[in-house]
């Protein structure tokens, strides 16, 4: 069993498939770690989402800013950028299943010597602290009140701020 870690796919489904062929990815035995930003910019974000979701436990993906942007766009929050390539997802018959799956993905995955995050960790944080903070957000994003959270997710100033991990 091998684990392959791949960077931001950004809707480049064809390139991902070529890469998996080149490394002879075995869907029955190998695992794929993805650092997030599955969608946007590239032409086949919808196929990318379906593919990674269908890999089930063979794939571990963390959320990137473009994935969060998709969730915001689907909820009607934030401003859409003109050049985004998200419409095929938003118009898809299975959009709700895909978006529900996406918002339940982690922000930080820690296993053995490795920690999987999108775009890096604050150097002052330990992996344990990053994991605890990520878990806090994951609980909300994956829970019933995620829209309340997303409504205030972006901006220069947080609406509420606390370093208290026990609260
Ligand atoms: Mn990114």
Descriptive report:
This protein has a single domain (about 5-150), classed as Metallo-dependent phosphatases (Purple Acid Phosphatase, chain A, domain 2, 4-Layer Sandwich), CATH 3.60.21.10. The protein has seven helices and five strands, in the order E-H-E-H-E-H-H-H-E-E-H-H. The chain has helices spanning about 15-20, 45-55, 65-75, 85-90, 95-105, 125-140, 145-150, and strands at about 5, 30-35, 60, 110, 115. The protein has a three-stranded parallel beta sheet with strand order 1-2-3, with no helix packed on it. It has a two-stranded antiparallel ribbon with strand order 4-5. The longest helix is centred in the last third of the chain and has 15 residues, at about 125-140. About 30% of the residues are buried. It binds manganese (II) ion (MN). Manganese (II) ion (MN) binds near residues 8, 65 and 119.
CATH architecture: 4-Layer Sandwich
Percentage beta strand: 5-15%
Average of the residue pLDDT scores: 94
Poorly predicted regions? none
Given the structure, what is the number of helices? 7
SSE layout and pairing:
Layout: E1 3-6, H1 13-22, E2 31-34, H2 45-54, E3 59-61, H3 65-75, H4 87-90, H5 95-103, E4 108-111, E5 114-117, H6 127-141, H7 146-151
The structure holds manganese (II) ion (MN).
Name some characteristics of this structure.
167 residues, alpha/beta, Purple Acid Phosphatase, chain A, domain 2, 3-stranded parallel β-sheet, two-stranded antiparallel ribbon, 39% helix, binds manganese (II) ion
């Amino acid at each position: 069993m091998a684990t392959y870690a791949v960077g931001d796919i950004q809707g480049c489904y064809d390139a991902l498939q070529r890469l998996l062929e080149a490394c002879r990815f075995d869907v029955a035995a190998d695992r794929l770690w993805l650092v997030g930003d599955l969608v946007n910019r590239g032409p086949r974000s919808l196929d990318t989402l379906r593919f990674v979701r269908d890999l089930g436990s063979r794939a571990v993906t963390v959320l990137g800013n473009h994935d969060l942007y998709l969730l915001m766009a689907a909820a009607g929050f934030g401003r859409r950028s003109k050049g985004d390539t998200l419409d095929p997802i938003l118009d898809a018959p299975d959009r709700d299943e895909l978006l529900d799956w996406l918002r339940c993905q982690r922000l930080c995955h820690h296993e053995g010597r490795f920690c999987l995050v999108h775009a890096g960790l604050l150097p002052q944080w330990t992996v344990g602290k990053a994991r605890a903070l990520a878990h806090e957000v994951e609980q909300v994003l994956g829970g019933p009140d995620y829209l309340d959270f997303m409504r205030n997710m972006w901006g220069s100033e947080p609406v509420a701020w606390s370093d208290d991990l026990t609260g």
